[in-house]
Amino acid sequence: MGESDALDQINGQSWIALMTRPFEGWVNQRRTNIPILTVPSESITTGLIYRWDYPTRESSVNPNLPQTSPTTDTKLWFQK
Asked: What DSSP letter does each residue of 8-44 carry, written as one string?
């Protein structure tokens, strides 16, 4: 077993261990891309969701909100 195989196994086990903490599991999968997820053929979206939309109220309470909000299919800073 090579080093990359070992990391795949560790990240796979991490995915399983984080089932009770879904947000952390979601972020870890996006960070490592393990397990490799695919969009089901019957899905209404064409790709994976990488981020949440900003709530509507956010623009009135957060002056640092970007002028153009990123879409859900825009990768996060650690995925680029």
From this structure: HHHHHHHHHHGGGSHHHHHHHHHHH--SPP---TT-S
Residues in CB range of 79: below 8 A, 6 or more apart: 30, 31, 50
Distance CA 69, CA 2 (A): 41
What token pair was written down for 74? Answer: 């825009």
**pLDDT band of 53, cuts 50, 70, 90:** confident
Length of the chain: 80
pTM here is 0.64
Q: What is the pLDDT of residue 20?
A: 96
- pLDDT higher than threshold 80 for residue 52: yes
Residue type at 77 in one-letter notation: W
